[in-house]
Amino acid sequence: MPSPAAIGFRAHSGWAAAVAVAGPLNAPVVIARRRIVMMERGATGPSQPYHAAVGLDIREAEELVARSAARAAALAAAGLLIVVEDLRRLGHRVVGCGLLLASGRPLPPLERILASHPLLHTAEGEMFREALRAACRECGLAVTEVKERELFQRAAADLRLPAGRIERHVAAMGKDLGPPWTQDQKFAAVAAWIALQER
């Protein structure tokens, strides 16, 4: 009988840290960590498509962003499928995914995004998070979304464990693995832990 596992994601422009966890809900272990590439460098489009769209005619900007979003979603789905298959071969069944969010405010129209440098970054972050959502849907996996600034508070409430214990456990998870075990991997692991508990 395959053991349940969950995958957590922390997205960046063009890629995401992905960490899979399994095991007891009070002390899961990391069973995989990957980098999901969502935009090849210089191949089919820029890694920062909203930045690249600044100065273009609005129709050209819309086409560039749409092409980039479609490519990011396709690459995310391909990358996630590989992780799911690898975990299946190791005797695990992926039951859900955790996705870290930014503030979660809705984006304005494209013209306003292109006129504001901070909104360019916000829109790109949301585009790559949406690519991960689409990848999860394609793989038939439910997504648990968690605002990053509320991550440990949410984890403590959902897991019914003290936040300090969660932080210490996540820090220790990386010792056996070795580097990289940065904030990207730690936060993705907590998101995966929450998703595992929910499923």
CATH architecture: 2-Layer Sandwich
CATH structural class: Alpha Beta
**Largest sheet, if any?**
5 strands, mixed
What structural category characterises the helix and strand content? alpha/beta
Overall shape: it is globular
Strand content of the residues, in percent?
15-25%
Number of domains: 1
Q: What is the share of helical residues? A: 40-55%
Number of helices: 7
- Global mean pLDDT: 93
Q: Taking Cα atoms only, what radius of gyration do you get, to the nearest Å?
A: 17 Å
Number of beta-strand segments: 5
The CATH homology group name: Ribonuclease H-like superfamily/Ribonuclease H
Order of SSEs, N→C?
EEEHHEHHEHHH
The spatial strand order of the largest sheet comes to 3-2-1-4-5
Straight-line distance between termini? 16 Å
Low-confidence stretches: none
CATH topology: Nucleotidyltransferase, domain 5
